[in-house]
Amino acid sequence: MRAMQVTELGQPLVLQDVPIPTAAAGEVVVKVHTCGLNFGDTLAIKGTYQERPELPFTLGMELCGTVTEVGEGVSDFSVGQRLAAYCGFGALADYAAVPASVCVPIPDAMTPEHAAAFLITYGTSHVALDYKAHMKPGERLLVLGASGGVGLTAVELGKLMGAEVIAVARGQDKLAVAKAAGADHLVNSETDDIRAVVKALGGADVVYDPIGGDQFKAALRACRPEARLIPLGFASGEVPQIPANHLLVKNLTVIGFYWGGYTRVNPKVLTDSFKVLTQWYKEGKLHPHVSHVLPLEHANEALDLLRERKATGKVVVRIN
To answer: What pTM, to 2 d.p., does this model score?
Structure first.
């Protein structure tokens, strides 16, 4: 089968011919239809992601596909069933072997493109805002990187969950995408003073931050007392150092959050979240935003769209 692999750190993916996997106990083999790309994929190529598999490895964290083989002990899935899965690595290929514990059935009405754009982005935002931050209706949610994959879903879910949403993004075109997703207030990170604008609106109760760097510092200083801050990525390249005295004075809480970590420590958190999200999708309350769909052979170009900040929402690779 074909697989787009990292053969050397920091270099473009290479299209390789590799054996089709077989299902070990607790696994299913999936014929991959689509793979959703994530910023973490670009870090994995450089060797700076939280997890570092041995070279060579097949890139791709999430997929939509059809089950072709079921391993011993798997009773929740059958051959021919459509599903989405968080596999960590291996989705940019014709087939992938995936633990059944991180697979979820998808509605018949969900397209392969939507399914590949759904699991990590919506899952990350829902678990962060609901399970971790316990966000309540009427609170003010500040979303940094609001036009990106996870940021845009945080805007959409925040509005659906009853928050007043402040979206921060770079440039008017990206802010327009955030506004369409439900943002109440727009902040242009190229021209506006994030701290001043947010404080003028009354401050933030919850901060959703995939960016880090100076934007985190501005958001921290724009928090209301007892606010919760969720750093979940550092797209700026700078991991912020958090001054404990600021937390003390305002009784702030910083909540560490790595969605993928729950696949090992408590996968039920993710599957329970996905049940809620799937129901909202069926009810027409969620509208995945996919800005680009490219074929497997053009996966390097698809990744460049993420690196160069040319995409909004999700970039999806279709495996023909």
So the answer is: 0.89
CA–CA gap between residue 78 and residue 71 (Å, rounded): 10
Closest Cα to residue 104, out of 257, 263, 261, 258? Answer: 263
In Å, the largest CA–CA distance within the chain is 58
Contact 172, 187 (CB under 8 A): no
Which residues are registered as beta bridge partners of 204? Answer: 223
The first and second tokens of residue 11, run together, are 């270099």
Angle, helices 299-307 vs 39-46, to 10°: value is 100
Give me the amino acid identity at 310. Answer: K
pLDDT digits (tens, 9 = 90+) for 204-249: 999 999 999 999 999 999 999 999 999 998 888 889 999 999 899 9
Q: Shortest CA distance to 114 belongs to which of 302, 299, 311, 286?
A: 286
How are beta strands 82-86 and 103-105 bridged, if at all? antiparallel
| Strand intervals (E) in 71-143 | 82-86, 95-99, 103-105, 140-143
Q: What is the DSSP letter of 313?
A: B
Q: HSE (CB half, 13 Å, CA atoms) of 296? A: 24
Of 98, 101, 104, 103, residue with least CA distance to 24: 98
Looking up tokens 């397209």 gives: 111
Judging by DSSP bridges, how do beta strands 204-209 and 223-231 pair with one another?
parallel
